[in-house]
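Private note to self, pasted from the team thread so I don't lose it. Backbone tokens:
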């Protein structure tokens, strides 16, 4: 048995892949190289990557600028603990994040992953209340259709049905959920859309610490794009009720929605902001939770006088150096025009899907394209079908979507959207 087949056999028998099973597991495809917008499989096939490695590899793979940033830092040191020590890559990354994020987010906590960034945000909100002597304000309000991560605090604010965590419902804290916004991005705003949330605040406001939501784009919970005025209305209601606003921009940060941050669509500044995914350009795990002065100084100015969180790999120098280089690379180009190009190409390429049997909706925003089906798609059939067509697309539930690297060409987008049309057609035929 060759070395390659040995490790693949071990993988199939012993390695748990995300949202997968060890009992008759679905196929996984061995990657041996990646360059630009392409993944190279062990058998020599190349796949156009429509997922940007779960939306993080915004500059594609093996980028010389990011390679150089990691290599230069590696020659200095790979990691030191962040407790009692500090280093330039972390400080300069924090300086850049304060500069580019919505106004007032002047304090930066560097975490490990998106889920941990949400955990940190929730802990900030709860410790803020404790510092103010408001110990009964321990619940959060959030939106149906939301997704915020897989750790326990994050799971508790995911949609209990579409958020994939119903198994844990008897253990998780119980928060307040309201219907997702119905007015779509680009439609005419209807003030009645905010009424359910306003009513929930009237009913539960005294027990609430914060509102947490994904601004404008709900990601893994449904790929839903809603009107920015809803976000602006939430900001006003938070102010009126004395609540913190937590914006989860882990998926939307760094240009994905067509604005640098989705909050920019509404010119809104949250009290706490969560970032991840595209932060390092997909090179390694890193996240950040930013807070305004009220949150940060209230926590630090009262008992116990410190924020109670400290990951082992917090502020990893390699990740921080890579993140700074990724942000500089993005800002050095006309990323806004490029994302608009991608949006146009996705809209054009996915338009024929509107007429296919079994398609409920087709929508695009920024570098995001979505085909929503009437029935869930069979992943065991769909994933190999996409690979057969030379693309990497990983649907979930009723959603077939792409969020490609920003370096993708129009020709590569055409290949992606053409493959989606073919697989969706095949899916429809299997149900007729």
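Design output:
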């Amino acid at each position: 048995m060759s070395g390659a087949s040995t490790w693949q056999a071990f993988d199939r028998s012993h390695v748990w892949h995300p949202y997968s099973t060890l009992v008759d597991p679905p196929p996984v495809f061995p990657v041996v190289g990646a360059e630009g917008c392409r993944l190279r499989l062990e058998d020599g096939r190349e796949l156009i990557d429509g997922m940007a490695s779960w939306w993080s590899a915004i500059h594609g793979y093996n980028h010389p600028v990011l390679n150089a940033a990691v290599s230069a830092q590696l020659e200095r040191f790979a990691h030191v603990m962040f407790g009692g020590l500090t280093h330039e890559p972390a400080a300069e990354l924090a300086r850049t994040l304060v500069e580019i994020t919505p106004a007032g987010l002047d304090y930066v906590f560097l975490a490990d992953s998106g889920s941990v960034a949400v955990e940190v945000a929730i802990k900030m909100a709860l410790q803020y209340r404790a510092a103010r002597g408001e110990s009964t304000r321990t619940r959060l309000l959030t939106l149906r259709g939301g997704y915020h991560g897989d750790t326990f605090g994050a799971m508790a604010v995911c949609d209990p049905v579409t958020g994939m965590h119903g198994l844990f419902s008897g253990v998780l804290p119980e928060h307040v959920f309201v219907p997702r916004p119905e007015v779509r991005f680009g439609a005419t705003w209807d003030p009645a859309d905010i009424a359910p949330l306003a009513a929930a605040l009237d009913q539960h406001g005294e027990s609430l610490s914060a509102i947490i939501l994904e601004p404008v784009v709900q990601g893994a919970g449904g790929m839903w794009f809603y009107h920015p005025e809803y976000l602006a209305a939430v900001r006003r209601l938070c102010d009126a009720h004395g609540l913190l606003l937590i914006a989860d921009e882990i998926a939307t940060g760094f240009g994905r929605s067509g604005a640098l941050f989705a909050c920019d669509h509404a010119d809104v500044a949250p009290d706490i902001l969560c970032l991840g995914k595209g932060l390092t350009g997909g090179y390694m795990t890193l996240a950040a939770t930013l807070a305004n002065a009220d949150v940060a100084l209230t926590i630090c100015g009262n008992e116990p006088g410190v924020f109670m969180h400290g990951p082992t790999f917090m502020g990893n120098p390699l990740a921080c150096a890579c993140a700074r280089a990724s942000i500089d690379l993005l800002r050095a180009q006309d990323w806004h025009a490029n994302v608009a190009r991608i949006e146009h190409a996705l809209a054009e390429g996915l338009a024929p899907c509107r007429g296919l049997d079994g398609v409920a909706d087709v929508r695009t925003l920024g570098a995001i394209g979505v085909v929503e089906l009437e029935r869930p798609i069979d992943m065991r059939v769909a994933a190999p079908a996409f690979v057969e067509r030379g693309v990497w697309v990983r649907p979930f539930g009723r959603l077939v979507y792409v969020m490609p690297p920003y370096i993708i060409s129009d020709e590569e987008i055409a290949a992606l959207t053409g493959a989606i049309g073919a697989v969706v057609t095949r899916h429809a035929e299997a149900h007729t």
